[in-house]
UniProtKB/TrEMBL annotation:
PANTHER family in the cross-refs: GLYCOSYLTRANSFERASE (PTHR36529:SF1), SLL1095 PROTEIN (PTHR36529)
InterPro entries: Nucleotide-diphossugar_trans (IPR029044), Trfase_1_rSAM/seldom-assoc (IPR018641)
NCBIfam families from the UniProt entry: glyco_like_cofC
Native species: Keguizhuia sedimenti
Name by which UniProt lists this protein: TIGR04282 family arsenosugar biosynthesis glycosyltransferase
Pfam annotation, one family: DUF2064
Amino acid sequence: MNKDCALIIFAKAPEPGLAKTRLIPALGADGAARLAARMLATAVQRALEAGIGPIELCCAPDASHPQFQQLAHEHGVVLSVQGEGDLGARMHRAFQRVLQHHSKAVLIGTDSLDLGASALRDAAHALTGHSAVFAPAIDGGYVLVGLTRPISRLFEDIEWSTSRVMQQTRQRMAQLGVDARELPACRDIDEPDDLAYLPAEWRE
């Protein structure tokens, strides 16, 4: 394991009405929360398989949910809290904190089942020769970002949760002269139509 690269997983507590809310029309609040819990467990398992460094589970609204506590107890992941602000502010704050102690960090959510252990290893390796790495999402956002130093402007004035996120981020990187590598695009599970891409054994 490379102690120089930390892996941060952003996750909402898998509570009905809080997690995967855009899927509630298709799954109901309880079903959406169950799916969120399964995707959280999968993200942590893949992070463990990748073995790129210590894992931090950055939680919202806090770290008290039993699944967060169980993952910390069983796998030794560190728990932290995302805190206030929009997604960009919360991600920047996490990078600021973690990059005080590690030379590089990779941050993911729990929404993409395409993002496997090999992609996480590729991202960590990319940061050896680049200052940033991204895995775009097919819907126009991104499912992974990695940095070797905090860059607040990458996360400011971005239209989060829209199809313009990655495009705006590319423009910002060009303005700032950020040298980045992009990994292959991934699909994420956000909307009811995305449920068709769940593994067959996950469909109930």
